[in-house]
Design goal:
Helix content: 25-40%
Radius of gyration: 22 Å
Largest sheet: 4 strands, parallel
Structural class: alpha/beta
Number of strands: 10
Strand order of the largest sheet: 2-1-3-4
Order of helices and strands: HEHEHEHHEHEHEEHEHHHEHE
Number of helices: 12
Strand content: 5-15%
Distance between the termini: 9 Å
Shape: globular
Length: 334
């Protein structure tokens, strides 16, 4: 969202509405059902999670009625931030590493990270019954998309992944699973349907609401599809398992979905099937949207306010031969 208009009526582009790094970390944790997160910070670290749980995602389990909330904080404040807080951090990790946790993640808020606490040493020496993973606290250098991507990359660095590759198995890394409600469940169904349409099997999506151990299914993938929110994680996983790596955009919109299918078809040696699938999908979509174009899109401009990774698929000309009605180029800005 742009800032206020200046005297000439032009918008001041120096201010943007953005979400902080920690929110991206929370979204990634929310999408792995049995991961607990310890945040070195004050109690506002706990309250930030309420932007997701009960507000954005009604299926979220970040907060629980039994009190075993999946977000814990150390209670650091302005008075004790310069003290030795390692015992508090270790105690919070111990509380998080209970029998229901598949793993524990540790991160920090800026006021704590800048004091030079050696979180990597704490993680290495943690006396916990579950894997403990450090997610670098980079709130001063990144936003929510960076936090999401860094969480996935931290998980990938920690995971012990063997080589169980299957020829026609595919995994997707970097899916933006921002909540567990029906729209996102539908996205997972569509990913599986499109991959299946190429004669391939989708064996893992990082993340997809599965458990910590469920993420290990990615070892079966012979081809890893890297989407924008998980580039580094995808590279790390492919390096560990030996899978082939292909980078794509997000399969959204007619153009974005076409490019996504064709990239995977090319990488898997299924170019002909890819062309056939694109024709089938575009024909099906055209029958549904063709009648709406004259009434809602012709002669209009569209302004998109969304995750920037989505713009590439949504913006651009709509000029498919399947659409028999005359069309014009969309002018889109974000």
């Amino acid at each position: 969202m742009d800032g206020p208009a200046d005297r000439s009526g032009a918008l001041a582009h120096g201010k943007r509405h953005n979400l902080p790094y920690l929110m991206g970390v929370y979204l990634a944790v929310n999408a792995i059902e049995d991961v607990w997160l310890v945040v070195d910070g004050p109690d506002c670290a706990h309250f930030k999670g309420q932007f997701i749980s009960g507000r954005h995602d009604w299926t979220s389990t970040l907060f629980r009625t039994d009190g075993r909330h999946r977000i814990l904080f150390t209670g650091t404040n302005a008075r004790n931030v310069s003290w030795n807080r390692e015992p508090e951090v270790e105690e919070a990790i111990s509380r998080a590493a209970h029998e229901q946790a598949g793993a524990v993640l540790l991160t920090s808020m800026p006021m704590c990270g800048i004091t030079g606490v050696q979180y990597d040493r704490i993680v290495a020496g943690a006396d916990a019954s579950r894997p403990v993973v450090e997610v670098p606290g980079r709130s001063l250098r990144g936003d929510w998309l960076d936090g999401y991507a860094e969480t996935l990359a931290s998980v990938a660095r920690t995971k012990q992944l063997g080589d169980r590759r299957e020829k026609d198995a595919v995994a997707v890394v970097g899916h933006m699973m921002d909540r567990g409600e029906g729209d996102q469940r539908g996205n997972l169904v569509e990913l599986e349907r499109m991959i299946g349409g190429l004669g391939l099997t989708l064996v893992s999506v990082w993340p997809s609401g599965t458990s910590w151990s469920g993420l290990d299914q990615i070892s079966r993938a012979g081809l890893i599809v890297s989407m924008p929110s998980g580039r580094e994680a995808a590279r790390i996983v492919a390096g560990k398992t030996g899978a082939e790596l292909v980078e794509t955009g997000v399969p959204i919109g007619l153009e974005g979905t076409r490019r996504w299918i064709e990239r995977i078809a090319d990488a898997s040696g299924r170019q002909q099937r890819g062309r056939e699938l694109v024709d089938e999908e575009l024909g099906r979509a055209a029958r549904r949207i063709g009648r709406t174009i004259p009434f809602y899109f012709l002669g209009r401009s569209a302004h998109l306010i969304c995750d920037p990774h989505l713009v590439g698929g949504l913006a651009g000309p709509v000029s498919y031969t399947h659409l028999t009605l005359p069309t014009r180029s969309w002018q889109c800005s974000s």
